[in-house]
User: What shape does this take?
Amino acid sequence: MHVHLDERSAAFFALGAAKRSGRAVVVLCTSGTAAANFHPAVLEADLARVPLLVLTADRPPELRGTGANQATDQLKLYGSAVRWFCEVGVPGDDPGAGRYWRSLASRAWAEATGPPAGPVHLNLAFADPLVPLGPPAAAEGARLGGEPAAGRAGGAPWTAAPAGVRSADPGDVAGLAEAVRANPRGLLVAGWGADLDPAAADTFAAASGWPVLADPLSGARRGPAAISAYDGLLRAPGFAAAHRPGLVVRVGGAPTSKALTGWLDESVPQVLVDPSGGWADPARAAALRLTADPSELLAATAALLAPGGPASGPGPHPGAGEAPSTAAPWLRDWLEAERLAREAIDGLLDEWAEPFEGRVARDLVGWVPGGGTLVVGSSMPVRDVDAFARPRDGLRFVANRGLSGIDGFVATALGVAAATDEPVAALCGDLTLLHDASSLLGAAGRPRGAVLVVVDNDGGGIFSFLPQAQLPPGLFEPLFGTPHGLDLTALAAAARVPARAVEKAADLVPALDAALAGGGTQLLVVRSDRAANLARHRALTEAVAVAVGG
Assistant: This one.
């Protein structure tokens, strides 16, 4: 049990714990505005498919619309964002109440875990007295609302409802294998939430000869076919034009990279794979949507493509992990471009002594100990991780990309930390930290914490990359730049959270080591300049284009 001072922090903490554990987490509150403060996290849980059991207390139904204190209409408060809503009813003395509560709990759990997983809202009305009174036995009966019902033998749920994921249809597998065989110039693209089995991705890439363009948040940016510099490569007009794919298989949500999503327009044949039958296709470019477990589908397709497999065709089929020299020409070409781009990117990042936001992202991804988790904030941090992080194994990513909001970030990171014994680090911007300052105020007293790395450019750095940057300074700064002028280390001191400023790029990793060794929640503030950050991003884009000849 974790207690929070405000409901928004509680909801995002529960969200982080559910994202890291993969299990439904219960978050509960009193009535009125308390329940309304859960709404942002409920929306994120909906679109990110996170199991969340939202329990809101309420006044009895007869007090609605009477002006009673803390009474408002909480029926279907979160609208269509929940998988299921139930007005539970006021506890009574019904002899069958025990069965009702156990059945209700079983259904709520099943609805939340899906597929697709998501939030469930149970509205729990209570009449006075609000706590059980009398002898312990009577109090126990009052707590349950009637006579308790014995559970199933062996601790089994009252009603078991195993979550089923649709297996790959043999016809879909055969059709996909035929399409892949006919298109040696193809790509496997993994967005956030892909949850791909590494072996399946490696086997498919090897059998198809296709590169893997994986958003780090997908967990699939690893393996011998991984291309990490695609954002820079696709900003090079010559390379982008010469490497148009004949077919793309997409799993997970939309990629973070604007260059990649813009390049994959409707003229590129695309197959969208979603285990829950979703439509994660904001550009409306997919020509085919398959409902199947992506790992199973890719593994089965690879089996048909492999030498000796059913209907296997001619051509090279290197095994997973083979050297690039034995890979298909298309894959070799991408891997060579990856090598050149990485040399250009890493050369500039290592050359700059002053902290640069892209290097912070790269170095943090490389630093997190194996088995650890990195929580990535929206806005610029997730884009920098996407653009600059190298491929690596042994790292789990968590991010609130369902709605890509910045709110609740600190609470989400602390919830992730509460759900694991492994190291947890988090990367966010200054406005993101300030937006969730109330969660920072409660961080010091929690048994498990996270190393929070905050890029402080005194405002909203992402808007320097957008057309709004052309507005006059008198409009741009107060409305988009939004400078705050606050000392974030002083904020941490008020919260009793150890903090230090990182002044040099080379000092980040030693500071991370010290923060992890210190235990609990620690804050590292890396100061940055918005104008210099923009210039360095442009220099890196140009360097990659020069490295690959266009």
